[in-house]
C-alpha cells in the first residue's frame, strides 16, 4: 500500500469513527396546533391554552373568506397583529426542557397571511430563547401569498459549553405590522455526536501520515 492509499484509508476511518448517527427528537409543545380552544366559525379568543399572549394575539377559527383553505390543519390557527388598539402582538410558550449543549434545534411551523387583512402587512419574527436570553431569531423567513400558508423554519446550534445550558427553552412568535397567522408549531433537537477515542486516534495517525509524506524525498 502506498502512502496516498494509506492516507486515504485513514481519512475514511476518521470520518467513520467521528460520524456517529444523530437523530432528531421532537420536543413537546403544548397545544402546538391551537386546537385546544373551541370556537364557532370565525370565533376567536385572546386567551390560548398553554400559550402566553402579549398584547394583540390569540387564536381563532378562520373560514375561506380569510384563507383560501381555512385552517391548514384542524380548525384553528393563532394570530399575532400590530396596528389595532393593543400595540405589540406576540405569542410565547416556555417549554419543560432546558437548553442542551452540542445540539441543533429546528423550530418549524406554518405561517399565513389573511385575504381580508385591512392593515398593511410587513412580516413577522420567530425566535428561540433560553430563559431570558434570545438564542436565535428569523425575520420573515418566508412571505406567504395572501390567503395562503407556507412552511417556515429557524435553526440554532448550541455550543459545547454555555452559561445558558439548562435554562428552559421558549418559543416566541411576533407580528411586525398587520396580522400574521401561525399553525402546527414544532421544535426538534438533534445532538451533535462527539468524536470518540477511535476517531481521535485515527486523526493522530492521519496527521503523522501527512507529515511523513511531506518529509519523504521525491523521486
Largest sheet: 11 strands, antiparallel
Residue windows where pLDDT falls under 50 for at least 5 positions? 2-18
Mean pLDDT reading: 86
Shape: elongated
Structural class, by secondary structure, is: alpha+beta
Number of helices: 2
Strand content: 35-45%
Radius of gyration: 24 Å
Q: What is the helical fraction, as a range of percent?
A: 10-25%
* Gap between N and C termini: 17 Å
Give the topology string: H per helix, E per strand. Answer: HEEEEEEEEEEEH
**Strand segment count:** 11
Topology readout:
Layout: H1 3-18, E1 25-27, E2 44-45, E3 52-55, E4 57-60, E5 77-82, E6 89-98, E7 103-113, E8 123-130, E9 133-139, E10 149-157, E11 168-191, H2 197-215
Antiparallel strand pairs: 1-11, 2-4, 3-6, 4-5, 5-11, 6-11, 7-10, 7-11, 8-9, 8-11
Helix pairs in contact: 1-2
Describe this structure in words.
The structure is a single chain. This protein has 219 residues and is an alpha+beta fold. The chain has two helices and eleven strands; from the N terminus they run αβββββββββββα. Strands 1, 2, 3, 4, 5, 6, 7, 8, 9, 10 and 11 form an eleven-stranded antiparallel beta sheet that branches. β8 and β9 (133-139) form a beta hairpin. The longest helix has 19 residues, at 197-215. It is elongated, with a radius of gyration of 24 Å. The protein starts with a helix and ends with a helix. 30% of the residues are buried.
Outline of this structure?
The protein has 219 residues and is of the alpha+beta class.
Notable features of this structure?
40% strand; 219 residues; 11 strands; 2 helices; eleven-stranded antiparallel beta sheet; single chain; alpha+beta
Amino acid at each position: 500500500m502506498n502512502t496516498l492509499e494509506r492516507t486515504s484509508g485513514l481519512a475514511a476511518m476518521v470520518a467513520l469513527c467521528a460520524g456517529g448517527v444523530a437523530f432528531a427528537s421532537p420536543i413537546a409543545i403544548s397545544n402546538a396546533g391551537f386546537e385546544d380552544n373551541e370556537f364557532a366559525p370565525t370565533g376567536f379568543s385572546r386567551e390560548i391554552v398553554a400559550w402566553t399572549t402579549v398584547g394583540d394575539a390569540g387564536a381563532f377559527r378562520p373560514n375561506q373568506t380569510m384563507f383560501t383553505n381555512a385552517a391548514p390543519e384542524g380548525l384553528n390557527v393563532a394570530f399575532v397583529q400590530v396596528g389595532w388598539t393593543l400595540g405589540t402582538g406576540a405569542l410565547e410558550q416556555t417549554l419543560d426542557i432546558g437548553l442542551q449543549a452540542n445540539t441543533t434545534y429546528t423550530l418549524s411551523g406554518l405561517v399565513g397571511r389573511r385575504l381580508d387583512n385591512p392593515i398593511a402587512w410587513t412580516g413577522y419574527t420567530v425566535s428561540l430563547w433560553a430563559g431570558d436570553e434570545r438564542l436565535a431569531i428569523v425575520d420573515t423567513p418566508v412571505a406567504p401569498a395572501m390567503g395562503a400558508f407556507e412552511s417556515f423554519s429557524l435553526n440554532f446550534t448550541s455550543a459545547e459549553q454555555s452559561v445558558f445550558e439548562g435554562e428552559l427553552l421558549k418559543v416566541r412568535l411576533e407580528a411586525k405590522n398587520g396580522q400574521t397567522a401561525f399553525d402546527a408549531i414544532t421544535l426538534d433537537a438533534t445532538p451533535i455526536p462527539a468524536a470518540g477515542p477511535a476517531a481521535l486516534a485515527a486523526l493522530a495517525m492521519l496527521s503523522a501520515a501527512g507529515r511523513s509524506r511531506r518529509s519523504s524525498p521525491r523521486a
